[in-house]
Amino acid sequence: MAINDPIADMLTRIRNALRNRDKTVKCLNSKVCRGVADVLRDEGYIKSYDVIEDGRQGIIRVQLKYGPRGETVLNSLRRVSKPGCRVYTKVEELTRPRQGLGVSIVSTSQGVMSDRKARVERVGGELLCEIE
Asked: What is the β-pairing status of strands 88-89 and 77-79?
């Protein structure tokens, strides 16, 4: 089965794993998906991730993170820019989900980064998803 949107597939797999209280989830490997996983790890939404080589594309194994009483750290993962409707933003127009408590993930010319880092670097780009 061909996957047209690997980022939406990754976010859906993570969302479903959190709903099932799984400890790990496996996603398809791509450069953008690794960038999204980097941002999730750096912002503290997941424990870690590692890439498993399978002779083809590879698999990203994501270690999910839960709170001290078992509550989910991620409340919502929402895909903003889709293959049918791309959303590009300037650095001044980057959104602040939950007044700065959430994170927007942006694909820039300097790689995939969070909205905070994009503001520091003064670059805009494609708004991939919002995390709250």
From this structure: unpaired
Reduced 3-state DSSP string for the chain = CCCCCHHHHHHHHHHHHHHCCCCEEEEECCHHHHHHHHHHHHCCCEEEEEEECCCCCCEEEEEECECCCCCECCCCEEECCECCECCEECHHHCCCHHHHCCEEEEEECCEEEEHHHHHHHCCCEEEEEEEC
Tens of each residue's pLDDT in the chain, 132 residues: 568 899 999 999 999 999 999 999 999 999 999 999 999 999 999 999 999 999 999 999 999 999 999 999 999 999 999 999 999 999 999 988 888 789 999 999 999 999 999 999 999 999 999 999
